[in-house]
């Protein structure tokens, strides 16, 4: 594959290199190749060296007036490292959306955004589905919200997610506000499903040349009557112990409207430990609440009067709220959890959340495609910090990870409640 979209000695190539030279600190940061590709594409389009597909225009007619400043505004979705934000802000006004609150913080540091809210941070406080209701905020930015308002164009850049539903919801939320959507990612992950989702909302879909290991798929010419999917998705999870539960899930929510096998085993084990009568947990905390099914089921099973879910994902938080509401269960759900200082009882985030009689925990064991255990350990420490005296933490994990010793160290005495060929459930109490 080519090393660049641009001819080496072209004016656009020189301008792209000059812009990148302003950020020597980013040269070895993962994610730079995709950011460089976006810079080349925008500058190449502006200088009429590239057509809409990112290929050499080769003398084709391109309206100079229409492309001189395109795009005027860019919405960047899920730029985990903040590199795209840092570079694209030199080319247009940028608004930012991240599903994961930790990626939002990382991107803010790398992109060198100010601590006080500015127009680059506005959309980070919302879930992606709410963008369809943000016309007043777009207007407040002075942004055109469609291609038909003068010549001002708003583009969106979506970093290709693993889940097709996450991409579908992002496109559905953005289509009415932008003239172009660029989905960018590794070539081996850019399936025809991307083309299909873009074609639901755009009359033209182009696939760029590959640059290194990366590629763009570009939707333009927004349809006036798009056939876009609606979110959250609706489903029902049946469980013999708690009955049928309505489930709602936004596109980026782990497991969608299904119950994952680990959470099901955890609930089965929990139900066996609950007394038939007498004292049951009065409060429940779900760390990493996902679609909210486990939290809602635990609330129904225990009859607890207080329930709280937290998750790093805005899609999960929005899903868990919708799931609880659909089942008439009153819970609080929060997206902002600081794991690093979670074991410090003087930390405001710890004090504000309070303590709980029961904490349920199904920690992730991978970040993207990389297996990691640091998040799980941070969640275990968080569980210990929020455990009431005499309370218990019930954790499920992939058996090969062997977390029992860590649970003993971070929380207290632990015993196995259940195990199958894939998962293990451990109950831990404060030491």
From TrEMBL:
Keyword Disulfide bond: no
This protein's UniProt keywords: Cytoplasm, Methyltransferase, rRNA processing, Transferase
Sequence ranges assigned to domain Methyltransferase small in this UniProt record: 245-426
MF (Gene Ontology): methyltransferase activity
Statement: the UniProt record of this protein carries the keyword rRNA processing: yes
SUPFAM superfamilies: S-adenosyl-L-methionine-dependent methyltransferases
One Pfam family it belongs to: MTS
A GO biological process held by the record: methylation
PROSITE patterns for this protein: N6_MTASE
PANTHER family to which the protein is assigned, alphabetical: RIBOSOMAL RNA SMALL SUBUNIT METHYLTRANSFERASE C (PTHR47816)
Record protein name field: Class I SAM-dependent methyltransferase
Origin species: Brevibacterium spongiae
